[in-house]
Design brief:
Residues 6-129 form the NusB/RsmB/TIM44 domain. This protein has one domain: N-utilizing Substance Protein B Homolog, Chain A, CATH 1.10.940.10. Helices cover 74% and strands 0% of the residues. It has 6 helices and no strands. The longest helix is centred in the middle third of the chain and has 28 residues, at 40-67.
Length: 144
């Protein structure tokens, strides 16, 4: 498994834990790395994504809600919800990796950690969002 996928998987697992635990996410992250030691470049990439997820979560959640056929975030599986948050954030705010690669990575992670329906659901939502971004109908601005 590649370092980027490892970083994304660790980020999704951390987001999952944040939903179960209360407290400041940065403090939890420090403890998370103590329990899950790994290479510095994996940590760096994962932390970069996580910072963006927490910074832009409100806007990203609106987009996920809108393009998941109004399937309530609270009714989504925890893995699906957080995998969508991570992937949408990476597509919109990182732009270091092509959207198609981010989507493929998210689908592969969904196969490993989600339900049987997760890969198709994740792919469908992300593909809609990608199309809207490419069409200029979705931007990094919350006003979109």
């Amino acid at each position: 498994m590649g370092k980027r996928r490892s970083s994304r998987e660790l980020a999704v697992k951390f987001l999952y834990l944040c939903e179960l635990n209360s407290g400041e996410w940065k403090e939890q992250l420090e403890q998370y790395w103590e329990r899950n030691p790994c290479q510095k470049d994996i940590i760096r990439f994962s932390e970069g994504l996580l910072e963006k997820v927490f910074e832009h979560r409100e806007h990203v959640d609106v987009l996920v809600q809108k393009f998941s056929d109004h399937f309530a975030l609270s009714r989504m599986g925890v893995i699906d919800r957080n995998l969508l948050r991570l992937a949408v954030t990476e597509i919109l705010y990182s732009q270091e990796t092509p959207a198609t690669v981010v989507i493929n990575e998210a689908v592969e992670i969904a196969k490993r950690y989600g339900s049987d329906e997760s890969p198709a659901f994740i792919n469908g939502v992300l593909d809609k969002i990608k199309g809207e971004i490419e069409g200029g109908r979705v931007t990094t601005s919350p006003a979109s």
